[in-house]
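To: structure desk
From: M.T.
Subject: fold request, one chain
Message: Could you run this one when you get a chance? Sequence is below, nothing fancy, just the single chain.
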Amino acid sequence: MKKVFLCISLVLVAAYMLAAFIWTGKFFQKERCEGVRVIVEQRDTVQFVTPELIVNELVRMKIDPKGKLLSEIDTEGIEEAFKKKDYVEDAQCYLKSDNNVVIDIVPIQPVVRLFADSSSYYMNREGKLVATDERFFVDLPVLSGNFSDNFPATRLLPMIDYIEGNPVLRDLVSSIEVSDSNNIFIIPNIAGHVVNMGTADGYESKFAKLLRMYREVLPVKGWDMYDTISVKWDHQIVAKKRRGGSRLNVAEYLPEEDESAPDMETVMTSSGNKVKDNI
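Reply: Done. Structure tokens follow.
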């Protein structure tokens, strides 16, 4: 008897699910979208992205779902259309039971101001770029130079995070300029010299050496003594006296020549703090 009752119950459940599926299909075939609700995540940096902007874009792109049959609305297509916008970091689109379409928009969150290829952009953590224009201005770390698929600008984000998380370095660093992947220059707010960090690796110890240089050497030798301070090599700081010319002119990088320090004056090693008298 229990088995018969169980079988009957399963048949009823299956019949209900089938009926619900058929009814839902007919419902979608006849019902139309009543409206669009846009939810924009609030971000102080990108205030021009508003629900009104998104609704106007729907009309402009001819993908406004209002009035369309629910069965004809391509929610995934709407999502992808907005994800391609430079000012959008993420977008979600879905139908609600009240016959409305909801669009959730996450505006782009830039983390750096990028100058590359003779253009200026804001860049987020995923490397998405939004061109700078009159829509908004964000005070961010400045990064410029030569980048490629092998060495994208996002490679510098850990170093930038480290700088932004250290009050001393945040006040010290004006910008970062990349000559190539082996010659990354810090442009300090202290005018007169640049700092060659070498590669993007080991920046914590490199900054520690640089701060030591500022504490122990430059107060003795003079803040305008050197043109370039290099912390790119292990266990030493190397400085080049000022001789005029561009501070960012560096020789073409050759791996076989990067094994030892160049012909510049060694100011201090990490094993001691003695400053050579002939510098």
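Reply (cont.): The two ends are 102 Å apart (CA to CA). Let me know if you need anything else for the meeting.
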